[in-house]
Write a structure and sequence with these properties.
heterodimer; A: 161 residues; alpha+beta; Alpha-D-Glucose-1,6-Bisphosphate, Chain A, domain 4; 4 helices; 8 strands; B: 120 residues; mainly alpha; two-stranded antiparallel ribbon; 5 helices
Chain lengths: 161, 120
């Protein structure tokens, strides 16, 4: 564990043996607020989507057995995402599936654990598990940001030699 | 074999023997025979693994030198590291927006905390 009281930077692990990505981040807010920001559609649209895309929520029913669907749009390009909420425990845990509708057979299992650090602080550990390394890396790129695409292109260039 | 180069890299690295070969090549170049020595497999089997790594651009083999040592293409790994770092930065940007959202949520009014009642 590398997190300290004053260290907020996101840490990330792309596991070499299991196709998962784990992100750890601390917030200066109690678990109740962090949970609300993950479940209230009006709050989610303010932060979840990439900055240069418009996020529209079709529905977001964050409770055990519920489901969600949202769309990121840039001009005429639309990227849909949907999934089911497998287990939701207020202020503690969200387990959900995640599918990018451009790759409908692919699915990630996402687990978000909220840890109360006291003094109004929370540690979020978000783990995303998919069924192949190729899918994992496609999911890593699914943000659609130009930076990632450019990264791909640069890698393509080097690998094309 | 997956068509796009990045998928080739990651599927090449999905195999534990190939990851082990890569880890050993990170220390220094080695010949096929040297690479095959620790494994309970034939040189041919190791050659097949190397072919996959070579097709993915992860390793190269000198055409000139007689021993044809296998060389790890470190720049590919640098790019992968940068690529993962870029993903981390995107997550960080997203969570900074979440920081702002969290600051905007008013504290809950002093509602009485509901006590868990005894089952009636």
């Amino acid at each position: 564990m590398t997190s300290t009281t004053h260290h907020h930077e996101t840490s990330i692990v792309a596991d070499p043996d299991v196709p998962l990505v784990r992100i750890v981040r601390e917030f200066d807010a109690p678990p109740e607020k962090v949970f609300r920001a993950h479940t209230d559609p009006d709050l989610i649209v303010q932060w979840l989507g990439p900055r240069d895309l418009t996020m529209t929520i079709d529905h977001y029913d964050c409770r055990t057995g519920g489901s969600y669907r949202y769309i990121h749009a840039r001009g005429d390009d639309e990227f849909g995402f949907h999934g089911s909420f497998h287990e939701v425990r207020p202020n503690e845990l969200i387990v959900q599936t995640f599918t990018f509708e451009g790759m409908p057979d692919g699915v990630a299992l996402e687990k978000m654990v909220l840890e109360d650090l006291g003094n109004g602080r929370t540690r979020l550990t978000a783990t995303s598990l998919v069924d192949s390394f190729a899918d994992r890396d496609a999911f890593v790129a699914s943000g659609m940001e130009t930076g990632v695409v450019q990264g791909y292109e640069r890698l393509d260039e080097i690998l094309a030699h | 074999m997956a068509a796009d180069p990045l998928s080739r890299v990651f599927s090449a690295l999905a195999d534990p023997t190939r990851r082990d070969i890569v880890a050993r090549l990170a220390v220094g170049d080695a010949t096929v025979n040297e690479l095959a020595a620790p494994y309970d497999v034939t040189v041919q089997a190791v050659s097949k693994h190397l072919k996959v790594l070579e097709d993915a651009g992860l390793v190269s083999r000198s055409r000139e030198a007689q021993r044809r040592p296998v060389h790890l293409e470190a720049n590919v790994f640098d790019l992968m590291t940068k690529w993962i770092e870029r993903y981390r930065q995107l997550a960080e940007e997203r969570y900074r927006r979440l920081d702002d959202v969290l600051r905007s949520i008013p504290d809950a009014p002093d509602a009485p905390t509901p006590e868990k009642g005894t089952p009636s």
